[in-house]
Amino acid sequence: MSILITGGAGYIGSHIAHELVDRGDDVVILDNLSTGVRENVPAKAEFVQGNVGDRDTLSALFKAHQIDAVMHFAGSIVVPESVENPLKYYDNNTAVTRTLLEACVAESIDKFVFSSTAAVYGMPHADELPVTEKTPTVPINPYGRSKLMTEWMLQDISHAHDFRYVALRYFNVAGADPSGRTGQSTPAATHLIKVACQAALGVREQLGVFGTDYETRDGTCVRDYIHVTDLAKVHLLALDALQAGSPSRVLNCGYGRGFTVREVIDSVRRVSSVDFVTHDLERRAGDPPELIANAGELRAQFNWQPEHDDLDHIVETALKWERRMMR
Ligand SMILES: NC(=O)c1ccc[n+]([C@@H]2O[C@H](COP(=O)([O-])OP(=O)(O)OC[C@H]3O[C@@H](n4cnc5c(N)ncnc54)[C@H](O)[C@@H]3O)[C@@H](O)[C@H]2O)c1
Ligand SMILES: O=c1ccn([C@@H]2O[C@H](COP(=O)(O)OP(=O)(O)O[C@H]3O[C@H](CO)[C@H](O)[C@H](O)[C@H]3O)[C@@H](O)[C@H]2O)c(=O)[nH]1
């Protein structure tokens, strides 16, 4: 297949690009390098630098390449920034995607894989955990809303046109390609495992723990951390299912178990053998106490068999990548 990957120079998109190239698919990447890194793109992929929201760029790209399917990773992803600058998120996540979808419909591209997020669930109640795809979607920040609006566009388009999609609701994506080809390279990334690894390596002096008074086993928030390589495999399965004619789907992507912030920090200390400093801080606004996926649907639909479901292994690959970035 010939696949357009938007945001393919970014953290998650570059992992999928490598997997697709490995199995012999043709990959075209469209990325404006706002947070992505050119070096993380596989050598065998064609790279186009440009904005997904630019209709002329899209038309030229679709004219130059016979694209069979689109995988859409490009977007803005920092939750607190979305609260401060909501219009950036409704533009770069919702409006830009609308332009991309318009181009897909015009070009009769009927297969689409979308990076959605667990943030669409907002603050699920304790009795709603682990969340299923049927748990009400009540996002509490512009980031989550901008992504949910895209899910709605996809649903409506799939009813109106010959168009099928898989929207993957990622939980907390972490780790790096075990063979070291790519990883989380955005210096200002805020994800817990990334910043904890930076603290272990002395890139940052300390790590703040946002909130220690939650009703969880040690008072800190619980998240479902999924290794990026297992998530990449899900994308390949989603693409193959669409290619085989399967209907549109929305699927949670997690392992179905959670770790507290303190458990993650213990893991990073254990794996790095560095007892870095942490400070307890106030709760961060908008953090749900616990977010765990019910991933039963994903396993049932795609027969997905994760291979990296081990917190220390996730941390080990993230740490290895962080060391490489220091060179
Ligand atoms: N990282 C996570 O834990 C997580 C969790 C849930 C969902 N997601 C979603 O997964 C997707 C990928 O996230 P990531 O962690 O790889 O982020 P990232 O910032 O590393 O990757 C995003 C990529 O898109 C590019 N980009 C952004 N806007 C663009 C535009 N208008 N035109 C062209 N390129 C553009 C960036 O340069 C970057 O390469 C995002 O849509 C994000 O919302 C990520
Ligand atoms: O320096 C830090 C960073 C994080 N945390 C805590 O660690 C947990 C995980 O935080 P992350 O920032 O790593 O990720 P989130 O759980 O906030 O994830 C949200 O933002 C992501 C994108 O950044 C994804 O979209 C995801 O789906 C969405 O729920 C949270 O309890 C957070 O408060 C800290 O204590 N200190």
Automatic annotation (TrEMBL):
The record's Pfam families line, in alphabetical order, gives: Epimerase
Q: What is its EC number?
A: 5.1.3.2
Alphabetic keyword roster: Carbohydrate metabolism, Isomerase, NAD
**Reactions catalysed according to its record:** UDP-alpha-D-glucose = UDP-alpha-D-galactose
GO MF annotation: an example: UDP-glucose 4-epimerase activity
Gene Ontology BP term (one):
galactose catabolic process via UDP-galactose, Leloir pathway
InterPro entries the record matches = Epimerase_deHydtase (IPR001509), NAD(P)-bd_dom_sf (IPR036291), UDP_G4E (IPR005886)
Q: Where are the transmembrane segments?
A: none
Keyword NAD (UniProt): yes
Per the record, the pathway is: Carbohydrate metabolism; galactose metabolism
Report the family membership.
Belongs to the NAD(P)-dependent epimerase/dehydratase family.
Q: Which NCBIfam families match?
A: galE
Protein name from the UniProt record: UDP-glucose 4-epimerase
Which source organism does the UniProt entry give? Bradymonas sediminis
Q: What is the lineage of its organism?
A: Bacteria, Deltaproteobacteria, Bradymonadales, Bradymonadaceae, Bradymonas
Gene that this sequence comes from: galE
